[in-house]
Amino acid sequence: MKAARLVAYNQRLRLEEVAEPEITGPHDVIVKIGGAGVCHTDLHLIQGVWAETLGVDLPYTLGHENAGWVHAVGAAVTTVQVGDPVIVHPVMSCGTCLACRRGEDMHCENLVFPGLTVDGGFAEYLKTNERALIKLPPGVDPADVAPYADAGITAYRAVRKVAPLARPGTTAVVVGVGGLGHIAVQLLRELGNATIIAVDTHEGRLGMALELGAAHAVRAGEKAVSSVRSLTGGRGADIVIDFVGSDVTHRQGVEMLRKGGTYSIVGYGGQLSVPSLAMINNEFTIVGNLVGNYSELWELMQLHAQGKVKLHTSRYALDEVNAVLERLEHGQVNGRAVLVPA
C-alpha cells in the first residue's frame, strides 16, 4: 500500500510502498482509511519537536486523525464488523490500567499512539484496536469527520472544562480560529452561554467565526488586548482559550483576563511566564489540555449527528501531503485539511 513516511526530521515526507498492516492480536482491527486529517502536530513531528519525548525510531507513517471502514478484525472483536464506517480515537489504550478505568484514555500507562509512536493513517490502511472505534451513523462520509478524532476532541475537552464558567454575562475569547478554534466557537455556543470573541490574523477565519456563533471578531496583533478589554467594558474576559500557544499569545492571553479569569492552553510552542504576584493578586487559573478521551469523542459525534457542530474541511489526495503541510505551515488552510487515499 502507499504511505506518507517520516524518514528524517526537517525533511519532506516520502511516499513509499509498504506492506499492509496485519491482524496479530484478538482485539486488533484494520481500518481502510477514508480520510486522515492533517494537523499542526504533524509539522512538529517533522521538525523533531517530539523526538526526545517519543523516542520513536524512523521511518514511520504519520497521521493521527483517522476515519474509514473496518477492513479486518481480530478473533475477539464483537462491537464492529467488516464494512462498518468508523472514526478512530487516536489512542490505542489497554483498558486495564488505572487511567483507562477512570476513562482517561490519553493517560493510559500502556498507550500506543498511531501517527506518533507507531504507523498512522497517512496510508491506505491503519492498524488500531477495538477500543478505539466509534461506528458512524449511516450516510456519514468518514472523510467529513476524520478531524474530529483529534482536533475535534481536543477542542471539546478544552471547552467542556470551562463550560461551567461560561455563564450568561460572561465573555469567552478564542485565540486562533483555525482547525481547532472554529470547532471551539461552536462548542462554546452549544455548551455555554458566554459572549464569544474570536481573535485571529486571517479575515476569512474571523468571518467564519462570526457565522459559527462568535459575537465579535478581533484582528490579532498588538491591539488585540485593548480591543478585547474595550469589548468587555474594561474588565477583561472571563475565559481565554489559546489555540496558538506562541510567546505572544501566551502574554496577550493572560493580559486579556479579568480578575479571577481562566486561561486555557491548547496550542503549544511558546513559553508561558506569569509573575507569582500577578497569579495571586488576580487569582488566575491556568489550564492545560491534551487530546480528549473516548467518551468525549462519542459525545462530540452526537453533536455532529444533531447538526450542532460542523467541520470546515478541504480534501486532498494522499500524493499532495507535502503541499498540504506547506500550506498549513504558512497559515493557508482554512478549517481542516483531509487526505483521502485514491
From TrEMBL:
- Every Enoyl reductase (ER) domain range: 8-339
Q: Does the keyword Metal-binding apply?
A: yes
So what does this thing catalyse?
a primary alcohol + NAD(+) = an aldehyde + NADH + H(+); a secondary alcohol + NAD(+) = a ketone + NADH + H(+)
Checking SMART domains in the record gives:
PKS_ER
InterPro entries recorded for this chain? ADH-like_C (IPR013149), ADH-like_N (IPR013154), ADH_Zn_CS (IPR002328), ER (IPR020843), GroES-like_sf (IPR011032), NAD(P)-bd_dom_sf (IPR036291)
| EC number(s) stated in the UniProt entry for this protein | 1.1.1.1
Signal peptide as annotated in the record = none
Keywords, A to Z?
A: Metal-binding, Oxidoreductase, Zinc
Give the record's family classification: Belongs to the zinc-containing alcohol dehydrogenase family.
Q: In its UniProt entry, what is this protein called?
A: Alcohol dehydrogenase
Which species expresses this protein natively? Answer: Thermaerobacter marianensis (strain ATCC 700841 / DSM 12885 / JCM 10246 / 7p75a)
